[in-house]
Design a protein that fits this description.
The chain is an alpha/beta fold. Helix content is about 40%, strand content about 15%. Helix 4 (about 100-125) runs parallel beside helix 5. The protein starts with a strand and ends in a 19-residue tail after the last strand.
Length: about 250
């Protein structure tokens, strides 16, 4: 059994699953969190590492807190938390926004992340070791389509910085990894499965892969223990910083 334990949320697909593969190769024992139990079981079978499967919906706070409090002894001392669970839901502008979409993003991207972090952080502090990696987004730094999604990621980006300051008296590291567009199931979820819109979104070509982001996470967690990456923004070469938008002045008579 590895003496280093990592808990990865959102491990049933995309970035979370890719991170799990890389951490297994680094020798971590893994706690795989996600909503889809069958996918977690399949992932566990594919990894050459000790694994505990944790099928839980992070939007259910009570269930999440209970599940984390009941981790088997061999997996309880989590050294690395990778908060990968997150989503965008819907593309409506705020004036036509769907409250259900908004609740889903806030409950997952913010509240779910907070629940897991709050549950595991006291143990890290008691042991005076650990690393918390939060998956933020460039959408939290630059205006883009999806004001509420960007707002949730701005929370994640800034929370990581303030948590780092709060933990200054400890040896615990905190990192915000902030990718640009990543080619995963993200667009299908964001666009509610609309095939025409998904095809249009993918027409711009290949962007980051889930493993590209996982490699970025690996870079951050394998640096010497005294080195903390505060925030790391990464995007494909065919993407750039969010542009300012201007409205042309209307001609006057």
């Amino acid at each position: 059994m590895s003496n280093r334990i990592a808990l990865v949320t959102g491990a049933s697909s995309g970035i979370g699953a890719a991170v799990a593969h890389r951490l297994a190769r680094l020798g971590f024992g893994l706690v795989l969190g996600g909503r889809r139990a069958s996918r977690l079981t399949d992932l566990a079978a594919a990894l050459d590492a000790p694994v505990h499967v944790l099928p839980v919906d992070l939007t259910d706070r009570d269930a999440t807190v209970a599940a984390l409090a009941e981790l088997p002894e061999a997996f309880a001392a989590v050294d690395l938390l990778v908060n990968s669970a997150g989503l965008a839901s819907g593309t409506n502008p705020v004036a036509q926004g769907d409250f259900g979409d908004w609740d889903r993003m806030v409950d997952t991207n913010i509240k779910g992340m907070l629940t897991v972090t709050r549950s595991l952080l006291p143990g890290m502090i008691a042991r005076n070791r650990g690393h918390i990696v939060l998956l933020g987004s460039v959408a939290g730094s630059y205006p883009s389509a999806g004001s509420v999604y960007g707002g949730t990621k701005a929370f994640v980006n800034h929370f990581a910085l303030t948590l780092r300051r709060e933990l200054l008296a400890t040896d615990i590291r905190v990192t915000s990894v902030e990718p640009g567009r990543v080619d995963t199931e993200f667009n299908a979820v964001r666009l509610h499965g609309d095939e025409a819109k998904i095809a249009a979104a993918e027409a711009a070509g290949a962007f980051l892969s889930a493993d590209d982001v996982a490699a970025t996470v690996e870079l951050c967690v394998t640096l010497p223990a005294h080195v903390n990456v505060n925030r790391l923004e990464v995007m494909a070469v065919n993407q750039t910083l969010g542009p300012f938008a201007y409205r042309k002045r209307q001609a006057t008579a």
